[in-house]
Amino acid sequence: MNTLEFTLVVTLGSFLAGMLGSLTGLGGGVVIVPLLTLVFGVDIRYAIGASLVSVIATSSGAAAAYLREGYSNMRVGMFLEIATTVGAVSGAFLAGYLHTSIIAIVFGVVLMYSAYTTTRKEADVVAGMPPDRIATALRLDGSYPTNDGPKSYHVRNVPLGFGLMYVAGVLSGLLGIGSGAVKVLAMDQAMKIPFKVSTTTSNFMIGVTAAASAGIYLRRGYIDPGLAMPVMLGVLAGALVGARILPGAKVRTLRIVFGVVIAALAIEMIFQGVRGKL
Amino acid sequence: MTDVGGSANLGATVNDKSVELFLGRLLRWGVLLAALVVFVGGVWFVIESYNVPQNYRVFRGEPAELRAVPQIVHQTIALRPLGLIQFGLLLLIATPVARVLFSVLGFALERDWMYVVITLFVLGLLIYTLTSRSGV
Fold first, then answer.
1. pTM
2. Which of chain A's residues have a Cβ under 8 Å away from the Cβ of B87?
3. How many whole angstroms separate alpha carbon B45 and alpha carbon B78?
4. What is the number of other CB atoms lying within 10 angstroms of the CB of residue A264?
5. Which stretches of chain A score pLDDT less than 70?
6. What is the complex's ipTM, to 2 decimals?
7. What secondary structure letter does DSSP report for A176?
8. Does any CB of chain A come closer than 8 Å to the CB of residue B132?
């Protein structure tokens, strides 16, 4: 393929990935790396660099809309960003030493988990939790708007959530993804933060986490302008279009379809990683 | 400002809200500006080298002039298309960094010194990754 063909095809693929990622809430990052490596034969290090850039674009692009709704909790986000950014630096550091086959296998496993989360229900299981000592000291408790006025919540299990956020950061730095699934797990399941608050705060954090590892990838020479350009523009355009058509979309069906696609890509990534082809 | 339970927290929430709205706008404009620069550089790059075969199968790593902030700025001023794309990507990476920087100011305005320190730590780490010599 020459530059023109390659740019157009990668833009189109990234556009679809960005649109599906935004419609399903999983983010485009999880499919960019498999798309580039398995379909276009791109070296996984270049693919991860380009994916990180697109993750920052979609996170920051969507943040404006989320912030207006008033769900996200700035203190929770900023406090946990200590864990995610330190994790991202560790992950980016690891990426320079691990064999690409191992990175591909880890990627496949994380992809499997993401596919599994598409089948989970988005129910708030938490209400009326008692206040937690650490959360109170850190002023993490907050409230969010509902139809019956603002509803307050107490944040729980801060050390566990903080630890999971470090893991989310490592995965983000190692694999070039937003790790949205692990971030929501940490906040929603471990820290008992309401689902809507978890997802919007997670989105807010993804850009900062990715920026920490993107700086390292750039300095290492993993971010190629010729590749990152179509990926970033495609994913960003796809995510914007996805957000527009979201209200009328059959999200449930889409999530299942996307979940199956991700699971298939995950198996292929693990398979190719074991064969040492990536 | 003394922090006495609920009422102080309520005041902080109202303040947080206006800071959040500002940060949201900052992020959106940052991304749009970055995308515009990347697009211009990209169109230029494709026009200049549309017939060159692309191969990302083999990892070679970027040359030094596309790796560090000062060199990328040089390439941009020298009007190299790849430098321009890389400059746009730098703007994109800088967007969340700017968000953290303004959060420091937001927390300082609320006199929430604990969160000023927390946010400064995150900011310091971000700046370190972009400027460290070896790329860690």
1. 0.88
2. none
3. 14
4. 14
5. 64-65, 119-128, 249
6. 0.90
7. -
8. yes
Structure tokens at A124: 């708030």
Residue B86 has its nearest CB partner, among A78, A79, A225, at: A225
Closest residue by Cα to residue A221 from B134, B42, B38:
B134
How far apart (Å, rounded) are the C-alpha atoms in residues A159 and A165?
10
Q: What is the number of other CB atoms lying within 10 angstroms of the CB of residue B34?
A: 25
pLDDT at A217: 93
Taking an 8 Å cut-off on Cβ atoms, the answer to whether A74 and B30 are in contact is no
**B100 close to A (CB below 8 A):** yes
> For chain A, which residues make up each domain, given as ranges?
3-274
pLDDT of residue A26: 73
* Residue in A78, A142, A221 closest to B119 by CB: A78
B21 interface with A at CB cutoff 8 Å: yes
Tell me how far apart the alpha carbons of residues B98 and B69 are, in angstroms, rounded to a whole number: 16
Task: Give me the residue from A4, A53, A78 closest to B115, CB to CB.
Answer: A78
Length of chain B: 136
